Amino acid sequence: MKGAIVVAATAAMAGSANAVNHGHAHKLFAHKRNADLCSTWVTTIWEETVLTLTPTQAPEPSTTPAVASSNSPVTTSSAAPVAPTSTVKLPVPTPEPITYATPGTYTVPATTVTVSETTTVCGASSTHVVPGTHTVGGVTTVVETATTITCPVATATTNNGVVTSIITSTEYVCPSAGTYTVAPITTTVTKETDIHFPIPTSYAPGTYTIPQQVVTVTETDYVYYCPYTSSTGLPTSSVVPTVIPVTLSPTQPIEAPKPTTTAPASQSEAPKSEASKSSDSPKPTTSSTPSTSKPPSGGFNGSFGNKGNHYGITYTPYYGESGDCKDASQVKKDLQEIKNEGFNVIRVYGTDCNALETVGPACEELGIRIILGVFVKGASCSYESKEIKDQVDAIANWKYLGLVDLMVIGNEVLMQGLCQPTDLASLITTAKSKWSGYSGPFTIAETLNIWERSDVTSALCGVVDYTGANIHPYFNSQVTPATAGEFVSGQLDILDTVCSGKKAINLECGWPTEGSSNGAAVPGKVEQLTALKSIREACGDRTVFFSFENDMWKQPGSCGCEQSWGCKEFFKGLL
């Protein structure tokens, strides 16, 4: 295997090994296309190089104590904020978990790591699961023909309560074309808990840095992941076997869990993350109906910035824990944080929680543009519906319409069966007639499979300026965090062809930090870092990231993931 193969003791896994009652069934080869298993492997090459880990003494606490990375649990204390008691440094830029025992404000010092050769290590990953059997980890690859692959495999051994993760290089024979997962770990748990497991992670030669960061902690035993986000090398968050895989195509994914949460009383329902479904056909039929909409006049071209940027993020003025409405001062504080993280655009789903009154003035002061929506949750898309009429009329009289780059009418209303395509088109036409102060573009937010329906394209291509879609790679079981960007970019390419001459825009896209594994799509904090980095680099200029913070007031849903899409910590790490 090219490059170095490293073994690292993952101390963070030791605590979970004792806390969870489970058994590991290491399925060394799982074929995802059908029930057949690829059970023929040629040879296994065990390579171990021990990496010496030298703990260093943590600094004494101060008003903003400097904190180094810790992989060990920290005892909770009622004293002033204290830094972790030990530091374990790996000579590779793995996202570094830091455990803070007590609330307080901490400074994470700048760190630089130089990698001289391609290096594969055991990265530590985790995911929050509900009772049941879950498959995690492993390396997923796609092969076009019968072939032999050489693949690094992460395994774990326990000695005196210490879990050591080891990378081994193994050759496997794939008897036919298909999608394979090498060495996944199947775990059964009897209660809701966190599963920790090793994953192979490769880093190319280069210099990787973590800039100095200030972290405000409001809870005890809080774990913060510090990603290395800039480098002269090209890190990869998962290992690709030494065989050229088939490019991921948007084959039919699994149905996304349908959330059952309703929003807090007296508020419009907040948006839920749904599956980014795709069609079996890679080339959807383009509507023959000529476009009758005027060209966009708001100066918006479907892009939030140059390739790799992250200019859009969804924002709802709810407190994440309770779902209560935020006041103007808290909204301004949130938007200042969003601006500081490099965003120039926010997506607001509707007018509830006094969004127009609180978001408008703050965005004007901070120089943030807005994608504004009319949220439809009832059984009608008619303007005469009181809930819709109130929103449309309020927007018509809003003095901050000059801040709006794009109007989005509805959020997955066709997918939910709340109205028919012709009714939604009629609502868009009515909104245009009511909003004389706005001359910019319009769209809707649906999934790809909805856009591919002929009744949708015939009714809506003529009244929208962009094909707006919500694309969530987590809900496709073949997509790993590392290939999330490739998947989203492929979906956008298809959406670009749906309405002739009209460009697609990704209005909602993220990766959960908790929940059940969906095939190769594994939730987790490290996985979110990997997925968002992949999406940002592949198509960040056309993506609105979901979402600013976690929504703990929602129900977790059947996927166990609906509460945990908050991604502001990732973007803080880019500063």
Gist of the model:
With 575 residues, the protein is an alpha/beta fold.
Structure report:
This protein is of the alpha/beta class and about 575 residues long. The chain is built from ten helices and 30 strands. It has helices at about 10-20, 330-340, 355-365, 385-395, 420-435, 450, 455-460, 485-495, 525-540, 570, and strands at about 5, 10, 25, 30, 45, 55, 85, 95-100, 105-110, 110-115, 120-130, 130-135, 140-145, 145-160, 160-175, 180, 185-190, 195-205, 205-210, 215, 220-225, 230, 310-315, 345-350, 370-375, 405-410, 440-445, 465-470, 505-510, 545. α2 (about 330-340) crosses α3 (about 355-365), α5 packs parallel to α7 (about 455-460) and α8 (about 485-495) packs across α9. Mean pLDDT is about 70; it is low at about 1-90 and about 230-300.
Key structural traits:
30 strands, globular, 575 residues, TIM Barrel, single chain, alpha/beta, 10 helices, 8-stranded parallel β-sheet
How can the largest sheet be summarized? 8 strands, parallel
CATH topology of the largest domain, by name, is TIM Barrel
CATH superfamily of the largest domain: Glycosidases
CATH architecture of the largest domain: Alpha-Beta Barrel
Q: Helical stretch count?
A: 10
Q: Percentage of helical residues?
A: 10-25%
Q: Number of domains in the coordinates?
A: 2
Multimer state: single chain
How much strand content do the residues show?
25-35%
CATH class term of the largest domain: Alpha Beta
Mean pLDDT: 72
Number of strands: 30
Region (Disordered): 56-88, 249-305
Subcellular location: Secreted, Cell wall
Function: Beta-glucosidases are one of a number of cellulolytic enzymes involved in the degradation of cellulosic biomass. Catalyzes the last step releasing glucose from the inhibitory cellobiose.
Organism: Clonostachys byssicola
